[in-house]
Amino acid sequence: MPKEPVTDTIVALATAPGLGAIAIIRLSGGQSLEIIQTLTQGHHGKIPARSPTILPIEEPKTGKLLDHAMVTTFPAPKSYTGEDLVEISSHGGWLVPALVIEACQAVGARIAEPGEFTRRAVLHGKMDLVQAEAVIDLIEGRSRATHDSALFQLEKGLSRRISDLRAQIITIEAFLVHHIDFPEEDEAPIPVGIIAEKGKTLLNDLDELLRTAPEGELLREGALTVLAGLPNSGKSSLFNALLGQDRAIVTKIPGTTRDAIEATVSVGGFPFRLVDTAGIHDTEDTVEQLGIDVTQRYLNHADLVLLCVESGRDLLEDELHFLDKLEGRPVIVLRTKTDLHTKKDKDKNFIHTEIAPRGADEVLQISALEGTGIARLQETLPNLIYSRLVRTGGFVPALTRARHSDSVRVAKNHLAEFIQELERVVPVELASTHLRSATIALEELLGVVATDEILDQVFRDFCIGK
Ligand SMILES: Nc1nc2c(ncn2[C@@H]2O[C@H](COP(=O)(O)OP(=O)(O)O)[C@@H](O)[C@H]2O)c(=O)[nH]1
Ligand SMILES: [Mg+2]
User: Fold this and answer.
1) What is the pLDDT along the chain (466 residues), one digit of tens a residue?
2) Class for domain 233-258+270-387, per CATH?
3) Is the dihedral of CA 133, 138, 140, 143 positive or negative?
4) Does domain 135-212+399-446 have CATH number 1.20.120.430?
5) Is residue 243 within 8 Å of residue 193, measured between CB atoms?
6) 334: CA distance to ligand 2 center in Å?
7) How many degrees, rounded to 5, is the angle at CA 281 between CA 278 and CA 285?
8) Using an 8 Å Cβ cutoff, are 81 and 126 in contact?
9) How far is the CA of 410 from the centre of ligand 2 (A)?
10) 295 lines ligand 1 (CB under 6 A)
């Protein structure tokens, strides 16, 4: 809820700054229509609503022509922010948009804070907080799965699920009130046992939603995928093959890749943050040693490890030890350079299978040089990391931020305590406070009740103009 009425008028560039054919400048707030009228004054009567109109934009004091721009006005409440809003499509580049923004400032607008347009949209009930987060995900997404998920969230896919869970808590609260209102009856209309049962079902639903969080959160940043293996095992060649371009330096001299190179790639439509690093062996060379430290740091946070081991030999002690240390983290062992170690026989399927060593989820044979096995790997990666999303097609509500899972966890814990107290026959009135807290947690998540602190946290990541 707004603390104070939002009345001032904000202005910002909505398109990316820099060279471009067109720039869009946005104005929102009580003075927007007045401001655009002033900047285009003398050339037109009232600008028609929601109808793009080409107008000369003039500097307010001097009347000097700044540009001919396409102006569209969106009077409240039918606008993105729910306020009077104006979009000015001017010529792009460095100067024109800056001059137009300056002109808006000269007649009363101020530069918007990051995310302020969307924040105002939330304050005016145009979208909830979870939808607002989807806006930024949609803009920043780099893979089809991220796009699908963000769009689904923007279309209230997740919000509906959360609202539904909130409604269920409120229903239990209502049952409880009903129960409290008939204390003298032997058999209250709704026995405590039934209320507890309802609570348990809801607890499962909350759990189910929580289980979507790990994959949902990965969708935004991409799964951190670290290429590991001894020098010369073919890590950089694989990195380039997955990227489809030669980004990492590939040489025969061991230890060439001295620091980490990172790239976000879409594999099967899912985002992966691929990291090519120095190898995992001891070295005297300090620069190379630094690279190895980088590897360790990445390994600590890896969502997936691809251990490259050249084909034609068994895994070394070091490599097996390395697998042991990764404990529980998804690992694929890639037997590389199969072209060197397999006789090419057109009649034979020369990719032979191999049993995954202890600690590894899969073993795949690849040749980065010939491209063999790369498609298989590209199929395996999403299945290993995003199995749930692959299965559901991504159109199932999923929690996509730590903020989401934190709130749902709080709601769940309160509900669990409620059930416990109900069964321990604590006065039901007391137990019901937990229901209230659970409801509030979900309301904060949706932004129904959002403190400035929550709003600041959400909109901090936005760019100016959104
Ligand atoms: N024949 C063949 N050579 C490869 C293959 N992958 C890498 N190599 C070669 O192996 C050497 C080391 O490769 P590189 O990718 O730099 O390994 P890294 O040190 O683990 O990054 C280079 O000479 C590559 O050309 C492959 O699939 N087939
Ligand atoms: Mg390398």
Assistant:
1) 444 455 799 999 999 999 999 999 999 999 999 999 999 986 667 899 999 999 999 999 999 999 999 999 999 999 999 999 999 999 999 999 999 999 999 999 999 999 999 999 999 999 999 999 999 999 988 899 999 999 999 999 999 999 999 999 999 998 888 777 765 655 556 788 888 999 999 999 999 999 999 999 999 889 999 999 888 899 999 999 999 866 666 666 666 656 778 888 999 999 999 999 866 566 666 656 555 666 788 888 999 999 999 998 888 888 888 888 887 889 999 999 999 986 654 444 444 456 777 778 889 999 999 999 999 999 999 999 999 989 887 678 999 999 999 999 999 999 999 999 888 877 777 888 999 999 999 999 999 887 888 888 888 878 877 8
2) alpha beta
3) positive
4) yes
5) no
6) 15
7) 70
8) yes
9) 45
10) no
Residue with tokens 């290429």: 227
For 14, counting Cβ atoms within 10 Å of its Cβ (0-12 exposed, 13-18 middle, 19+ buried), the class is: buried
E strand residue ranges, 220-260 = 223-229
For ligand 1, whether the C-beta of 231 sits within 6 Å is yes
Q: Is 235 in the pocket of ligand 1 (CB under 6 A)?
A: yes
Q: Fill in the amino acid letter for 182.
A: F
Instruction: Tell me the CATH class for 10-128.
Output: alpha beta
Please, what's the largest Cα pairwise distance for the chain?
Answer: 86
Q: By alpha-carbon position, which residue is closest to atom 4 of ligand 1?
A: 337
Domain ranges of the chain: 10-128, 135-212+399-446, 233-258+270-387
End-to-end Cα separation, the chain, in angstroms = 20
Q: 230 C-alpha vs ligand 2 centroid, how far in Å?
A: 9
Q: Backbone dihedral region of 394: left (phi > 0), alpha (psi from -120 to 50 degrees) or beta?
A: left
CA distance linking residue 222 with residue 131, whole number of Å: 20
